[in-house]
């Protein structure tokens, strides 16, 4: 393959995938990563791709279905922030750091938010069942089962999760169980991290150590299925143990309930109802019409005998029985309304941020929302929460890097630490002239090595492969012989008490040497670094003259930094 053929192949891969890492391109093209980096530099200069930290992104917009028949299809991960592309957002609180970033972006655009399952803050309404009361009812039903089969003996393994709604499920279940069985014992209550593997391992260990456990309560189908598989692999007698799922979200646990092996009773949350209710709430919010603080969706406690009243098997799936559901369960909206109304405006696109894409709850919810939105010709964009957070943080780090580069003047000697943000700083500095850059970062060196307008000096030293940084006595000795006008410093923890800290002790000595070599220390840190204390202290916070951070940093922390005489520069995305 010629060099030009390889360049064309790289462009093809990037335009097809949107983002491709250097490592992936190296494997695909059968050349070294250094060769790929040179290729990417050339393609970036030709304005055919855009280099990023660790890889490359396409300059072409990702595909959005244009045909009318395809408008309801999920749009997967286009470039940029989701709040720049949607009219209404449906999201669920998972991480306070993520919530703060999302809300900052949404507030600027005045986009209505519908919270699914759990409040996120500033939402128009929360679409959710009453978790506690539903769990109480489920606990009472399981208590009846224990009375009928085990003379009222109940020893519980609670596979819970840290969120308030899942905690309410665990608490309600125990309260309902103890309404009937006051002596019911919680043997263990463990955070299963809402993951199949963790639930499987925890159940295996718990049943091995505590063989008297006869009830396993699981806050969703994913953890319930992990528990079921653990029971099977341990060859536990199905008649001596009950796995109780809170959800019955898809085919897996409905099949398990119908088989009656380990699952004899469960609570159904009906994604077929919740999905359309979320869409209707989004349309209502888009029209700026009032919504209640919570739209409570229905639930039903099902057994192998009652499951067919609400679901019937069709091909390989369970289909909801709408007639039975509408007769027996309260639904917040009239979901039969599938026509456009003259006095109603309709959003072109609704965004749905999914925290656990692998869960059957969200798989089912996406399918139901997509189908329902199609009746209104509304596009539904599905975004993975983890990926969206990384994208949002990347935008913020790039803006921090841009503001950092603005601090550099012709003639400056700039000392640049290793880290993701400083790699972006190097990209910004590549276009400046008459500056000298001293760095211990291979990434920074790689970005600047082909730019003769920048005098580049490497500290040398022992390579730490995981971060691409040069450390050790050689790097420290080099820094003792140098003086820089500005240092762009990166750390992993900042508190007023412990000061600046870092996770890797081997890098701390180099960072301390950099601080001693610089006339001005400029700390580059996204808001998530603040309030964290890493293992090794670097220096007191007062050694810093400027902090460049993002706008999600709480105002209280900004004030505290200002009191120390530190200038705070805020990157606004």
Give your account of this protein's structure.
By secondary structure, this protein is of the alpha/beta class. It has 4 domains: about 5-60, Arc Repressor Mutant, subunit A (Orthogonal Bundle); about 60-130 and about 270-295 and about 335-390, no CATH class; about 130-270, Response regulator (Rossmann fold); about 405-570, Rossmann fold, CATH 3.40.50. The protein contains 19 helices and 30 strands. The strands form 7 sheets. A 7-stranded parallel β-sheet has the order 4-18-17-5-6-7-13. A 7-stranded parallel β-sheet has the order 21-20-19-24-27-29-30, with helices on both faces. The longest helix is centred in the C-terminal third of the chain and has 22 residues, at about 385-405. The model is unreliable at about 60-80 (pLDDT under 50).
Which structural class best describes the helix and strand composition? alpha/beta
N/C terminus separation: 42 Å
- Report the average pLDDT across residues: 88
Instruction: Indicate the proportion of strand residues.
Output: 15-25%
Cα-atom radius of gyration: 28 Å
* Main sheet record: 7 strands, parallel
Number of helices: 19
CATH topology of the largest domain: Rossmann fold
Low-confidence stretches: 61-79
Level-2 CATH architecture of the largest domain: 3-Layer(aba) Sandwich
Major sheet: arrangement of strands? 4-18-17-5-6-7-13
- Overall geometric form: elongated
CATH superfamily of the largest domain: Translation initiation factor eif-2b, domain 2
E-strand count: 30
Number of domains: 4
